[in-house]
Design a protein that fits this description.
alpha+beta, Uridine Diphospho-n-acetylenolpyruvylglucosamine Reductase, domain 2, Uridine Diphospho-n-acetylenolpyruvylglucosamine Reductase, domain 1, 3 domains, 8 helices, Oxid_FAD_bind_N
């Protein structure tokens, strides 16, 4: 089995050395502001580097994990064994007619502003959703009666062999918070949105209205990963949590928001363990009271305890080849 030292040599050849970090705390890369160290974190500059990194991880049988802005992600206190590939430098946005093509690392905010500037409507719902367009497409993100399935036209992705493929709308298998990307472990490189021509003033008013609703109803002043739980069939997670009298319940500095019970927040210095314990408490209480099991919308990665001190001198991690994504 090859050591991480050899793996790092290969990564150095594939990407800019300045974009490689060893034992990097994931709390610096997630909106929850928690998470132990990733063995290796790489920020590639283009699609060729992403392809090369995936192929290297496959060759050395090292787990790899893809992130954008880390807005839908909870990393455990022990951190991540393997390679984290951060796509934030792939952020180019192009507009042609009524179509926007955006690389996966572009923020949803920037994409919606590009739409506004070009008088294109249909993506206003995403203006306040944290995270990147690649992750939004992969998980079919949505809010306020809109979701990505309404505007997605195609995606450029990398398959599990590191090769590029185009996924057309009828191949995306879009459903509630899921898609073919998540189902098959693909990596989104860019997405093309098909929008409609609209009035800039009307589009801006809609975006401003949704921004105010978010500010009024969501705990944006605290670190979080957005909505913690998926919507269970026939119910709303926030209503079940509120009716279980769990608003304000806390474990350490992790708290069920009093402003919106669908959010678990990091009030100051919560650990990932605090948040996980609170998630379980909420799940158990709702299950007992209503017979409904809440599944997490937030992705949970990593280990509870760090098994070794440093990545550069350790042996390559799991022998299973896993590609996971969260944006």
């Amino acid at each position: 089995m090859k050591s991480y030292t050899e793996l790092l040599k290969q990564i150095n050849k594939a990407t800019d050395n300045a974009n490689i970090m060893v034992d990097e705390l994931m709390e610096n890369h997630t909106s929850f502001r928690v998470g132990g160290p990733a063995d290796i974190l790489v920020t590639p500059n283009d699609v060729l580097e992403v392809q090369a990194l995936i192929k290297i991880c496959k060759k050395y049988k090292v787990n790899y994990f893809l992130i954008g802005k880390g807005s839908n992600l909870l990393v455990k206190d022990g951190g991540i064994r393997g390679v984290v590939i951060k796509l934030c430098n792939l952020n180019k946005i192009e507009v042609e007619g009524n179509e926007i093509t955006a690389q996966s690392g572009a923020s949803l905010y920037d994409v919606t502003i590009a739409a506004l500037d070009n008088g294109l409507k249909g993506i206003e719902f995403a203006n306040g959703i944290p995270g990147s367009i690649g992750g939004a497409a992969a998980m079919n993100a949505g809010a306020y009666n809109g979701e990505m399935s309404m505007v997605l036209d195609s995606m450029l992705a990398i398959d599990n062999n590191g090769e590029l493929l185009t996924i057309e709308k009828d191949e995306m298998e879009l459903s509630y918070r899921s898609s073919a990307v998540l189902k098959y472990g693909y990596t989104v490189i860019s997405v093309t949105l098909k929008l409609e021509v609209g009035d800039k003033a009307v589009i801006k008013a809609r975006m401003d209205d949704l921004a105010k609703k978010r500010s009024d109803k969501q705990p944006l002043e605290y670190a979080s990963a957005g909505s913690t739980f998926k919507r269970p069939e026939g119910h709303y997670a926030s209503v079940l949590i509120q009716d279980s009298n769990l608003k304000g319940t806390h474990v350490g500095d992790a708290e069920v928001s009093v402003k919106h019970s669908g959010f678990i927040i990091n009030k100051k210095s919560a650990s990932a363990t605090d948040i996980l314990d609170l998630i379980k408490l909420v799940q158990d209480e709702v299950q007992e009271k209503f017979g409904v099991r809440l599944d997490t919308e937030v992705k949970i990665w990593g280990e509870d305890k760090e098994p070794f001190e440093g990545a550069a001198s350790c042996e390559a991690g799991s022998t299973s080849e896993i590609g996971s994504s969260s944006y």
